[in-house]
Amino acid sequence: ELKVEQNPLFLSMQEGKNYTIYCNYSTTSDRLYWYRQDPGKSLESLFVLLSNGAVKQEGRLMASLDTKARLSTLHITAAVHDLSATYFCAVDPPGRYGGSQGNLIFGKGTKLSVKP
Amino acid sequence: DTAVSQTPKYLVTQMGNDKSIKCEQNLGHDTMYWYKQDSKKFLKIMFSYNNKELIINETVPNRFSPKSPDKAHLNLHINSLELGDSAVYFCASSQVYTPHWGYTFGSGTRLTVV
User: Fold this and answer.
1) Are strands A4-7 and A19-25 parallel, antiparallel or unpaired?
2) pLDDT over threshold 80, residue B76
3) Contact yes or no for A46/A37 (Cβ under 8 A)
4) B91 closest CA partner among B102, B80, B103, B101
5) Distance of alpha carbon B87 from alpha carbon B92, whole angstroms
6) Which of A49, A59, A99, B71 is the residue whose CA sits 20 to 30 A from B97?
7) Predicted confidence band of residue A97 (pLDDT cuts 50, 70, 90)
8) How far, CA to CA in Å, does B112 sit from each of A19, B15, B83, B84?
9) For the segment B90-112, what is each residue's pLDDT rounded down to a tens digit?
């Protein structure tokens, strides 16, 4: 059974600081997604990582994927209060004939709180 | 112009009732999903439909029945609601063989069973 583990599950940061959220998964996959969820809201797609070594950046967030280590990271640079939310990573296992199995397996989420 | 829309947004109902949640996507995607988010925010897939055909049916009680009248719609019908069914249900869609498009989620339906 594919497992996706995020850590930390809770993260309290001060504004201006840097931190990294880790996402480990237990089976081969080269498709990994990061989502943001604000309280009571839907999941907003942040990054789609589709190959080993993929790195994507948007504003203060940067995501990377190491498929050999089965690890993705979400790095936060100079955090601001607006980044407070829950962040999920999700793995998309390959189907029997390649392509997508069409079944996202989510980590438990990291609740980020950025304080002044 | 919402990409994946769900109705209703909130649903409060008594135990034993039957209820439906509707989902529509206007992205032209060929696959639609239902995910359940429990009180601890854990997200788990329930069903997946590709071009109106059931692809994934995870271990959910058979009181839950998805229905896809066409590839733009995937509804979720729940019979004999129980307290434990209280959760947020998200509809999503994707184009399965183009993963760079990712998955698009609806705004969620918060179901409360009393």
Assistant:
1) antiparallel
2) yes
3) no
4) B103
5) 16
6) A59
7) low
8) 36, 10, 8, 9
9) 999 988 766 566 889 999 999 99
CB distance from A18 to chain B under 8 Å?
Answer: no
pLDDT reading at A38 higher than 80: yes
Q: Is B48 on the interface with A (CB under 8 A)?
A: yes
Burial of B55 from C-beta contacts in 10 A (0-12 / 13-18 / 19+): middle
Say yes or no for a CB contact (<8 Å) between B44 and A37: no
Cα separation, A60 vs A83, whole angstroms: 9
- How far apart are the two ends of chain B, measured CA to CA in Å? 34
Dihedral (Cα; A20, A91, A55, B3), 10-degree rounding = -110
Helical (H) or strand (E) element with B33: strand B31-37
**Structure letter (DSSP) for residue A96:** B
pLDDT digits (tens, 9 = 90+) for A40-89: 999 999 999 988 889 999 999 999 999 999 999 999 999 999 999 999 99
Which of B59, B91, B105, B107 best tests the A interface by mutation, with the highest count of A CBs <10 A?
A: B105
The tokens describing B83, both together, are 């307290």
The yes-or-no verdict on residue A9 having pLDDT over 70 is: yes
Question: Would you call B56 and A42 a contact, using CB atoms and an 8 Å cutoff?
Answer: no
- A12 — pLDDT class (breaks 50, 70, 90): very high
